[in-house]
Write a structure and sequence with these properties.
The structure is a single chain. With 308 residues, this protein is an all-alpha fold. The longest helix is centred in the last third of the chain and has 48 residues.
């Protein structure tokens, strides 16, 4: 009886992820994988065709020639890695659904998501280091702003802008130096702020992804459900999915150049959006579900304890 009550949390968790919404997320993930494979094959075929046409066109290869310049090897490798990454995502969601559906532990699926989160944190930290270097470079350049202004001021550039672009009548060297330095400062601040926001959001997202996956794995081992990271991870995933739907509209412009590629790109983006939104709804909804289940489990534990 004690073991039955102890495993009630794991059973409830598996019942939740055996829902049709998780199956929908898996179907979308498979769609992502298939479109990724198709685009990779199309890219490889296009690169091969490019190579053959170049071989027919030239009787010799220029000095320093690299086959990767014609075949797009780097791009193909990146596409293959992308396929493997998407394949692991589909495997993770599939394991979570089918293992839960057959009353087996979906821990392996959450482990894959946990690894995704760790890799994401590493890349976020690298972005943070890039921001630090960018900030140092910006400080150095702004500190030397006086030198830049004086260098520009040594040129008689006023005649270029006089009574034209600036419509100021007298806009000579030092004024132009100050103008461009000011433009650089504004551009630097804007770019740095955008990258900072991206860094913070990415870091928070991947941290909560690891917290969420850890919470699910704990719920499979412990007598109650955990919800750390589920809310933020779920809501942010839904928001990302919504932005992907908007981004799919940009792929419409590809119809002018390659209709087949445009269709595949739109389908792929919509599949990614479907995965993020459906699985995000699952994660966000789990928080409320876990609170209700934990109350029920607490009542069962208390009832069992009073039986002694």
């Amino acid at each position: 009886m004690e073991n039955l009550i102890y495993n009630s949390a794991a059973k409830k968790l598996k019942e939740y992820y055996a829902s049709p919404l998780c199956l929908i997320a898996f179907v979308f993930a498979c769609g992502c994988f298939l479109t990724s494979v198709i685009t990779t094959i199309m890219g490889a075929m296009g690169a091969t065709s490019n190579l053959l046409s170049r071989i027919e066109e030239y009787t010799y290869l220029p000095e320093g020639f690299s086959y990767s310049q014609l075949t797009g090897t780097n791009t193909i490798i990146a596409d293959v890695i992308g396929c493997l990454t998407v394949g692991l995502l589909a495997a993770a969601v599939g394991l979570i659904y089918f293992m839960s559906k057959h009353d087996k532990s979906p821990s392996a699926g959450f482990t894959i998501i946990h690894i995704y989160g760790i890799i994401g944190i590493i890349f976020s930290v690298l972005l943070g280091l890039l921001l630090v270097l960018l900030l140092i470079l910006g400080i150095i350049l702004m500190a030397s702003g006086g030198l830049l202004t004086n260098m520009l001021g040594s040129f008689d550039l006023g005649s270029i802008y006089k009574d034209t672009a600036f419509n100021s009548g007298e806009y000579y060297g030092h004024d132009i130096g100050s103008y461009f330095f000011g433009m650089f400062t504004v551009a630097f601040i804007v770019v740095f702020f955008i990258l900072l926001v991206v860094f913070v959001l990415c870091l928070m997202y991947f941290i909560n992804m690891t917290r969420y996956s850890s919470s699910m794995k704990k719920g499979l081992r412990e007598p109650y459900l955990h919800i750390k990271g589920a809310g933020f991870f779920g809501v942010f995933s839904i928001i990302m999915g919504a932005f992907m739907i908007i981004g799919a509209l940009n792929s419409v412009s590809l119809f002018t150049y390659d209709p087949a590629l445009a269709i595949i790109s739109i389908i792929g983006i919509l599949c990614y959006a479907g995965v993020y939104i459906s699985f995000g709804i699952l994660a966000a909804g789990f928080k409320k579900y876990a609170v209700t289940v934990n109350k029920e489990l607490e009542a069962q534990y208390n009832s069992y304890a009073r039986g002694f």
